[in-house]
Amino acid sequence: MHFRALNIKRRCSAFKSSVFAWALLLLCGTASAAGTAPLLPLRIGPHAFQVELATTTQQRQRGLMGRTHLAADGGMLFVFDQPDRHCFWMKDTPLPLSIAFIDSVGRIVSLTDMQPRNETLHCPPTDIRYALEVKQGAFRQRGIAPGARVDGLPR
To answer: Domain range spanning residue 64?
Structure first.
């Protein structure tokens, strides 16, 4: 009886270790998806940003959902295959963000602030190829306005 109880304890311990290992792997995978990817440097006039890229449909759909922190010079650049009137919402996004809608030649066509966890659609006034999300107010604080050129965009 003592041997059987000890054997069950070992199995439970091994099971707990396996669960812990899987949880750790899952956590590392989530951390990697949430900001450890290579960053793209962008410049808007004298202002530098280090941004994550969202180039696939899945990355663009996920965006910054669930994020609770964004660096002061951080953001996410959404890159679309074709220019169009791509719209955005803030469902499941807890951070207040500002978005710059950027045309194919790298000019900001409009800026807007977006409120957290909101399903209001934010659409550009014209076709865009890029959109840059940053902490809310980051463009205003730097004096960035429509017409500014964004340098460093992928083609």
So the answer is: 40-151
